[in-house]
Every structure is written in structure tokens, then in C-alpha cells.
Amino acid sequence: MHHLPPLINDLSLILISAAIMTVLFKKLKQPIILGYLVAGYLVGPYFPTQGFMEAVPEPVQDIRSSLFHVKDQASIATWSEIGVIFMLFGLGLEFSFKKLIKVGKTALITASFEIGFMILIGFVVGQMLGWGRMDSIFLGAILSMSSTTIIVKAFDELKLKGRTFANIVFGVLVVEDLIAILIMVILSSIAITHAFSVGSFVDTSLRLGFFLLLWFLMGIFLLPLLFRKFRDVLSDEILLLVSVGLCMFMVITATKVGFSAELGAFVMGSILGETTKGNKIEHLTLPVKDLFSAVFFVSVGMRINPAILTEYFGIIVLITIVTVIGKFFGTALGAMLSGCGIKNSSRSGMSMAQIGEFSFIIALLGESLKVTGPQLYPIVVAVSAITTFTTPYLIKLGE
């Protein structure tokens, strides 16, 4: 008999379970991301094999253990990291300086106020819970990030695109995505030096600015020239290969000069998004992004540990309440400070009251740098799942 490598078995299991759960959640008119998290939990290591599973015949338990259980979790972690890269590459393709200029000062003021407000609130809550300084800092950064994916899908389902408050939210999300990249760089610097210094911040910001300026200048002058020169041979297949290759090249370059892989992916996406082929590249890479994003979110669900959730139930409830109320007030007050009316500001605040994919990435960053405790990531996953569920209802109730 031929034996499949465990990775192929695991990947097929992840995709099949994700497909079943997303169809089910779509039928129930619930956010698809919740389906991914549930699918990950069902095939993950923390799905209970005792309790109600004891009532299941032993042969069925053996089948579940051998076929319906992810074994090579290290390889799946690698696949999920690729998912993060493609998610940020996709966000970069959607990001445009033209869009940022169009939304003007409203998005900038609102996003800056909301992020600063939530970082402060999160840090204070972490300190009140008795957590260490780094855990508290990362908690604040995690709570400051809303979910572009969840909000866009919710607006699509509720047919709210084009409304004034929806345009404000989209503008804030664009600015938030950009600030998130800088926050991750700053957090990495703080984690390494174990202290925040003005000199370190200025040095990191200057290096980041130089890195971005260099590559955007190359993107403005070099890539358009290459696309024009080889436009006759740039079929969809070749354009896809070139785009993904450039993304991976920038990922490697960014890591070599001391920045994150996520930053490299986002920068290359932004560069390609400004070219004449930007829309075409976004269309071609969308299935790739969706596929690897599914693997990422399922891998997140695999890390849901009921024992930890039970142990930190009170903290999860507290942080969920802080997230919803804090992001509502932070966004609404920021929007009002920028000159928006109370109605649009309030509806914007209700729309932003969740944490999502960037929060996972920041939590993973703290874990990979070994500066946060083991409780932070599963708590973030639980809070994200709850606020993902409540987002569509909060948007409906916003008016």
C-alpha cells in the first residue's frame, strides 16, 4: 500500500473540515470566520477524547484519532504562516495612497485616537489583572486592531456599503492596517531591548521609513517599466507567478534587514497595487489568499484549549466587554473629533467593536518572541470568536 505523508493528510482534513463548517455557518447566516475556528477545534489536539467520546465505540475513536486529527502540527504552523503572508499581501494590494488621501483627515484622526485609546485601556486592564508589562502592552496593541475581513463581510451581507459611516469605517481600516505594521515593528523592538527608548523608536522609524521609501521608489519606476516591457508575455499564469515571486522576495528581503515577513508582504502588495496591473493581480491572487487564509484561521481554531478557556473565563468576559465598549467609544469619539456627526460616529464605533486577524498576528508575535505568557493567545482567540459573533448584530443595532 502507498502511504501519504502526514502533511497531505492533515491539509486535506483541514480543507474538508473548513469547507463543511463554512457551508454550515453560511446556512446559519453566521460569520464564516467562526466556521474556520470551529473546524480547527474539531480537528485540533484539544478536542475532547474523554467524556462524551467514551460513549462512542472504540473503533470510531480509533478512526477519529488516525484520520480526523491533525498530526503534523509543526508543518501546519508553517502553512498558517504562509497564510499570514498572503493575507497581508492581499491587504497591501487593497491599500492605496490615493484611497488614504481621499478619506483625508477623518480616517487619520479617528484611527489614531482609537488605537491610542485602546492601547492605553488594554495596558491598564492588563496591569489590573496582575499581568507583566509586556503582556499588558501586547494586550493593548491586540485590542486596538479591528478586523477588516469581518467588517467587510458584515457590510456586504447587510448591504451597507456606500453609506457615509461605512466609508468612514473603510478609511479607518486602511489607516489602521498601516499603523498596525508600525506597531508590530515597535513591539519587536521593545521585546528585544526590554525597554522603550526614544532613540530606539526614532532609529526603528527611520529605518522603516528608508526601507519603505526605497522600495516604493523602485516600485514606482522599476515595476511599471518591467510590466510595460514584458506586457506581451504577461499571461494570467505568468503574472500570478511574478506577483507571488515578488511577494516572497520582499518577505525574504524584509527579514534579512531586520523587519518582519508580514511587513515585506504588505509593502510588496502596496507597490503592486499602485501599478496598472494592480486590479488584475488582486483578482488572480484572491483564491490563493483565501486558501491560505482558511488554513491560517483553522490553525488558530486548533489552538483553542477549553481547559484554559475555563480557567480564564472571567478574564475572557471582562476583556470582551472592554473590547466592545472601548472600541465603540474610542472610534466614536475619534470620529466626532474629526468633525463627523453623532449618528455616523456612533455607527462607526459599533462597526469597529471587535478584534480580528491582526490581533492574532500580534499575539503570535509576542509568543514567538517569548515575551508574553501562555494565557494571552487563547484568551485573544476566545475574545475574537465572541466579538466576531456579535459584530453583525452590533452593526444592525448601531442606528
Overview of the structural elements:
By secondary structure, the chain is mostly helical. The protein has 17 helices and no strands. The chain has helices at 6-27, 32-43, 58-67, 73-94, 97-128, 133-143, 148-158, 164-193, 198-229, 236-256, 261-273, 278-301, 306-311, 313-337, 342-351, 357-368, 376-397.
How would you sum up this structure in a few lines?
This protein is an all-alpha fold and 399 residues long.
Question: In terms of structural class, how would the helical and strand content be classed?
Answer: mainly alpha
Main β sheet profile: none
**Counted beta strands:** 0
The succession of helices and strands, N to C, reads: HHHHHHHHHHHHHHHHH
Helix share of residues?
over 70%
- In terms of DSSP E residues, the strand content is under 5%
Mean pLDDT: 82
Provide a count of the helices.
17
Task: Give the N-terminus to C-terminus distance in angstroms.
Answer: 62 Å
Poorly predicted regions: 59-64
**Approximate shape:** globular
Radius of gyration: 21 Å
Features:
0% strand, 399 residues, mainly alpha
Note the topology:
Layout: H1 6-27, H2 32-43, H3 58-67, H4 73-94, H5 97-128, H6 133-143, H7 148-158, H8 164-193, H9 198-229, H10 236-256, H11 261-273, H12 278-301, H13 306-311, H14 313-337, H15 342-351, H16 357-368, H17 376-397
